[in-house]
Amino acid sequence: MARIAAFEGFYGGSHKQWLDGLVANSDHDIHTFTLSDRFWKWRMHGASVTLAREFLNSGLEPDLILATDMLDLSVLLALIRRQADRIPVVLYMHENQLTYPWSATDPDPALGRDHHYGFINYTSALVADQVWFNSQYHMTSFLEALPPFLGMFPDHQNQGTLEAIREKSRVVPLGIDLQSLGERPVADRNTPPVTLWNHRWEFDKAPDTFFEMLFLLADQEVPFQLVVLGTRGEKYPPVFDAARRRLHDRILQWGPVESRAEYAGWLHRSHILPVTSIQDFFGVSVAEAMYCNVFPLLPDRLAYPEHIPANARHRHLYADDRDLVGRLRSLLEQGVPAIDARSMIAHYDWTQCIRNYDTMLNDACKHLNT
To answer: Exposure of 184 by Cβ count < 10 A (0-12 exposed, 13-18 middle, 19+ buried)?
Structure first.
């Protein structure tokens, strides 16, 4: 059993779920150093300074350092070098800022301040001994984005460093507490099918596309009901308020719920998950809905094809928005077939994947220390 120091600069949402699940299920002794999930840009710059002090004050002598992408790993390692010299380091990439789309309301791209965070991801990958990505899509897109990213700089672009990053990169899918979602009760098929939104209320999930599709179907008097879940910040896309007004007579649930049990209950009452996101390096909310046997309609891009077996992709992956609307209308009007989506996604449950995590963490300790 290894003693592991785990650093998370943005401890919330899927980051928190992943770290909590790893701690709860692993046989290793994992000590966490975390900051709240606020001010993500400041966390990228400053979290390492705060967490380094906490680590040094703890007196912990770990066998392995595990850090996520939402901090500057090079700064962290520089600050703790006297206490953590020659300790192997694994970087877990939940997302990256090279390929993450920028919000249209964010001023940084226009001001030329949008490259800092991608460079932090690059140098963090450079100093880590291993880099773990939550999906094949994520690893591929990051590695392909690095050459043109470094090519923007005037000289000393260090393109020769990229092969070393590629060689130490691995795909390690997220572990999720899927079993806590429970079993699906017998569905009532006499009511209109329930369409589900269970993602964050943010621009990268493309809520405008999602709700404009529902507005169109509602205007055409296509029968459906609607459940809207997901985390919501103080600011969110205005289309949510518009949708609440326009679709009020179809809404069964609107907004975040207080417990995972209540969340699971609404997933089990839902029938169709049409996903419109323009960014997803993994898709926890999609995996959770599929575990509850909600019929997924997913774009044939990003990480989503990795969740669908090859022989089922023709049923669940769509080509474009027009294709999505047609498929959704067909399901709503003709009925939603019963599927075993749970079996497609069950391998992400911690009970199924923790052995692989523990083995890889143990191997990282051994191999990187030799």
So the answer is: middle
Question: If you ran DSSP here, which 8-state letter would residue 33 be given?
Answer: E
Closest CA to 196 of 246, 244, 268, 148: 268
- Bridge partners, 297 (sequence order): 274
Task: Specify whether the CB–CB gap between 250 and 224 falls below 8 A.
Answer: yes
pLDDT in tens, 38-53: 988 899 899 999 999 9
Q: What residues are paired with 64 via a beta bridge?
A: 4
| Residue in this structure with the two tokens 């969340």, named with its chain if needed | 263
User: What is the pTM assigned to this prediction?
Assistant: 0.92
User: 231: how many CB neighbours lie within 10 A of its CB?
Assistant: 16
CA distance 137 to 329: 29
Question: Could you report the per-residue pLDDT of 173-188, keeping only the tens digit for each?
Answer: 999 999 999 987 765 5
* The residue type at 313: R
Taking the C-alpha atoms of residue 364 and residue 370, their distance in angstroms, rounded to an integer, is 10
Beta strands in the chain (DSSP E): 3-11, 29-36, 64-68, 89-93, 130-133, 169-171, 194-197, 225-228, 251-254, 272-274, 295-299, 317-318
Yes or no: say if 213 and 321 are a contact pair by the CB < 8 Å rule. Answer: yes
The C-alpha atoms of residue 358 and residue 289 are separated, in whole angstroms, by 27
Q: Among residues 126, 43, 136, which one has the least CA distance to residue 89?
A: 126
Tell me what the pLDDT averaged over the chain comes to: 92
Distances (CA, A) of 244 to 227, 239, 249: 11, 9, 9
- From CA 267, how far away is CA 152, in angstroms rounded? 45
Q: How many CA atoms lie within 13 A of 334 on its CB side?
A: 8
